[in-house]
Design brief:
- This protein is an alpha/beta fold and 206 residues long.
- It has helices spanning 6-13, 22-31, 37-44, 51-61, 71-83, 88-99, 132-135, 189-205, and strands at residues 2-4, 34-36, 65-67, 103-105, 118-120, 141-145, 158-162, 177-178.
- A three-stranded parallel sheet has the order 1-4-5. It has a three-stranded antiparallel sheet with strand order 6-7-8, with helices on one face. Strands 2-3 form a two-stranded parallel sheet.
- The two termini are 38 Å apart.
- The model is unreliable at 126-189 (pLDDT under 50).
C-alpha cells in the first residue's frame, strides 16, 4: 500500500514521471491511490491553477482515497515535530504514512531523512549517469574492488552492491550503493563510470 506525495501528483499531472517508472506509478495510482488531506489541500490550492486545470485536478483526485487527520495522526505529528526539524505538511505526510503502515511515494526524500518510513522514489534512477540498456540485465550483484580501482581516499577494500530494477517486473532498483569508510574520499563521475564498467565486464565474463 502506498501514500502518494504532492510532488509526485504534480509530476504525474504534468507528464513528467520518468519513462522507466511510468508503469509502476500508473499501477500505484490505479490500485493504491492514497493521499493525505494535506496533499489534497496543496494540490488543489495551487494558486496558478487555471479554471480548466483546477477542474481536471479535482476530477483526478476523485479517484483517490484521502486520509484525514485522526487524533492518532495528530499526536504523532506533534511527536515528530518536537524531535525533528521538519515542516508541518511533511510531518503530517510522515505521520499518515506511519499510522497507516504505507510506503511513501515521493521525490523529496531529504524531507524525511530522519523519519523511519519506507519510501519509493521514482526519480532515483536519474541520480546515476549510466546507460540503462547496458545495465538492465543486472539483478543483484556484489563485488569487492581493490583500492586501485577506486578514487584516492579508500584505505582498504570497499563493498559495492549494485542492483537494477527490471522494468518488466518492477523490482526495486539501486544502480550503485557505496559504503564509504573514509570521510576524506573524493568521488567523481569518472570514478563511478570506471567502476560500473568493471562490474559489467565481470558480469558478462562470468
Amino acid at each position: 500500500m502506498y501514500l502518494v506525495d504532492t510532488n509526485i501528483l504534480i509530476y504525474y499531472f504534468n507528464g513528467d514521471i520518468p519513462e522507466e517508472s511510468k508503469n509502476k506509478i500508473n499501477k500505484i495510482l490505479k490500485e493504491h491511490f492514497n493521499i493525505s488531506v494535506i496533499t489534497k489541500m496543496e494540490f488543489l490550492g495551487f494558486r496558478k491553477h487555471t479554471a480548466e486545470s483546477f477542474k481536471k485536478a479535482k476530477n483526478f483526485l476523485d479517484y483517490s482515497t484521502v486520509y484525514n487527520l485522526s487524533d492518532e495522526i495528530i499526536d504523532l505529528v506533534i511527536d515528530i515535530r518536537r524531535s525533528n526539524n521538519i515542516k508541518l505538511p511533511d510531518a503530517i505526510i510522515a505521520a499518515t504514512t506511519i499510522i497507516n503502515k504505507l510506503t511513501l511515494v515521493t521525490r523529496n526524500t531529504n524531507d524525511f531523512k530522519n523519519i523511519k518510513i519506507d519510501i519509493y522514489n521514482p526519480f532515483e534512477n536519474k541520480m546515476y549517469g549510466t546507460t540503462r540498456s547496458t545495465v538492465s540485465m543486472i539483478t543483484s550483484v556484489t563485488f569487492l574492488l581493490s583500492p586501485s580501482d577506486c578514487s584516492a581516499g579508500w584505505a582498504d577494500k570497499e563493498k559495492i552492491r549494485t542492483s537494477h530494477r527490471n522494468t518488466a517486473v518492477h523490482d526495486s532498483m539501486v544502480i550503485v550503493l557505496l559504503f564509504i569508510k573514509s570521510s576524506t574520499l573524493r568521488f567523481s563521475l569518472s570514478n563511478l563510470y570506471q567502476i560500473i564498467k568493471k562490474i559489467i565486464s565481470q558480469i558478462f565474463s562470468s
